[in-house]
Design brief:
alpha/beta; Rossmann fold; GMP Synthetase, Chain A, domain 3; 5-stranded antiparallel β-sheet; about 30% helix
């Protein structure tokens, strides 16, 4: 299914940093505008213009070259959300290095896996300095970026092919060790349909995604894509705080707010109790969601409060967002949207044939899509399992309706087999999430008395009346679901167990 309204233009030579930032030095109005705001927990603000951002990138690129970082070298990036994070990332990329953004929450044993796989030449980090030294990895400073006086330095940049390696992001490792997803410089071109038909970006947009920059959603759609378009980006360096998010939206007149469904759910509950704060969302023209499926009930509740829909996009670590709802067109709440213009994708059955309307199958996308990874780093076996017969297999199960809207069913590897029946966790979770006291839920599989059973883990508003609420949940599900779909146990928990990138851990002890 190829949407022909957009055609990719992929040049032979292309550098993500030059295209994203350096080009704006030739644009008199944009070079003077604010590129990035950094807002902390107390709502204190730092900012940098496009022109000064480019100067800092040139300075740090020179510093990297002076420290013998060359084309193809891997550099681990372990920093909190900050302007410096973006400068360091783009500096590595500018000289042809391969950036490896990592979470600051990773422990030493988790970092050791990444180090063993990628053998980085250097790390840019504020913490675990001795750990990197013990592993014979040079630790580079970011303090050089604080130099305010004019310094003589060479403007280093590397001539890179569009298909040259650019950065590695690591999957969460919910099924075994995490895999390094290697993306090319062209990846940002692969996301161009997202900026045009999902974000509908304008140069006067102010975009806010409070997520961590080591996530591809926050770094790509929430930052780099917006800088490439000449918009202004807000980076949040504080702790997770719904009230802070709302105050930032109001203070900066944020026009595009993007986050994950879980945060939208939290904001929705917060606004139920603090209705006067709804007006703080007034500046937002577009609410954008990705990271997991967005349920219909939340979309409708949000529309009722704000008179605006939330527009879902679908992507994954391996492939840029290529399915989304278009803010300029009618949507169907609960659907993930349509395949974006320019992308060639389809839904197939077990015989690799395109499914009929209403049938369930796996979503696949053409292996030549410019947003697709080059492969898993040094892991041909895993790469070949995912890219076969000219298509990348997403592992996501969908059905398509007569209007070409796609409806998410489940992850292929998350379908639970219980006593001969195939159960979609998403269906169960969407059902129980309708209850107003349910914050979050996860259908998991656990062993009990030597058997595997389904266990529904639920986070509720407060711990009072646990037994009464558990019984309410049980009675509600009995009315809403077939008997074979009913979980064998219901557990009230304080939080859902997830990987560091936010994916639910389905198998529990």
């Amino acid at each position: 299914m190829l949407n022909k309204k957009f055609q990719f233009k992929i040049p032979k030579y292309f550098n993500l940093t030059l295209d994203c930032i350096e080009k704006w030095d030739q644009h008199s109005s944009i070079k003077r505008k604010t590129a990035l705001y950094e807002v902390d927990n107390n709502l204190k603000v730092k900012k940098i213009t496009y022109s000064d951002l480019n100067k800092k990138i040139k300075l740090y690129s020179h510093f990297l070259k002076e420290n013998k970082i060359k084309k193809g070298d891997r550099v681990v990036l372990r920093l909190e959300n900050s302007i410096e994070f973006i400068i360091c990332f783009l500096s590595i990329v500018k000289i042809g290095g391969i950036a490896i953004p990592t979470s600051t929450m990773l422990k030493k044993n988790e970092l050791e896996i990444i180090i063993k796989k990628t053998r980085p030449r250097a790390a840019i980090s504020d913490t675990l300095i001795n750990f990197f030294k013990e592993n014979k990895i040079k630790t580079l400073r970011k303090e050089i970026l604080n130099i305010k006086t004019k310094t003589n330095f060479l403007d280093y940049s590397e001539k890179t092919l569009a298909n040259d390696p650019c950065y590695i992001c690591f999957t969460s490792g919910s099924t075994g060790d995490p895999k390094g997803v290697l993306h090319a410089h062209r990846s940002i071109l692969g996301r161009e349909p997202s900026t045009r038909f999902w974000l509908r970006l304008k140069q006067d947009d102010i975009v806010f995604n409070p997520g961590k920059l080591n996530w591809t959603y926050s770094l790509g759609a929430g930052c780099l894509d917006c800088l490439r378009f000449g918009s202004t980006v807000i980076i949040y360096s504080g702790n997770h705080d719904i009230n802070n998010y709302l105050n930032i939206i109001k203070k900066f007149n944020v026009s595009i707010f993007m986050t994950v469904p879980g945060v939208f759910r939290q904001i929705n509950r917060y606004l139920n109790e603090n209705k006067n704060n709804i007006k703080k969302l007034t500046p937002v023209n577009k609410f954008i969601s990705a990271g997991e499926h967005l349920d219909k009930e939340l979309i409708l509740a949000w529309k009722k409060k704000t008179n605006k829909f939330i527009y879902e996009g679908l992507g994954m670590s391996e492939i840029s967002y290529f399915i989304s709802n278009d803010p300029n067109k009618k949507i169907k709440p609960g659907s993930s949207g349509k395949i974006q213009p320019g992308h060639s994708a389809k839904i197939i059955n077990n015989s690799s044939r395109r499914v009929k309307t209403g049938e369930i199958g796996e979503l696949v996308i053409n292996k030549n899509d410019p947003g697709l990874m080059l492969g898993y780093w040094k892991d041909k076996i895993s790469t070949d399992k995912k890219i076969k017969k000219n298509f990348f297999h997403t592992g996501d199960l969908f059905k398509i309706d007569k209007d070409n809207f796609l409806w998410f069913i489940s992850r292929k590897d998350e379908i639970i087999n219980a006593f001969g029946y195939r159960i979609s966790p998403i269906e169960i979770e969407n059902t129980v999430n309708k209850l107003n006291f349910v914050q979050e839920s996860a259908l998991c599989v656990k062993k009990k008395d030597g058997k595997e059973i389904t266990s529904l883990n639920i986070v509720i508003d407060n711990d009072k009346e646990k037994t009464i609420k558990r019984n309410k949940i049980k009675n509600f599900l009995q009315k809403e679901l077939a008997d074979y779909k009913l979980p064998k146990e219901i557990i009230i928990v304080s939080k859902i167990k997830k990987t560091k990138t936010g994916k639910i851990i389905r198998k529990t002890n």
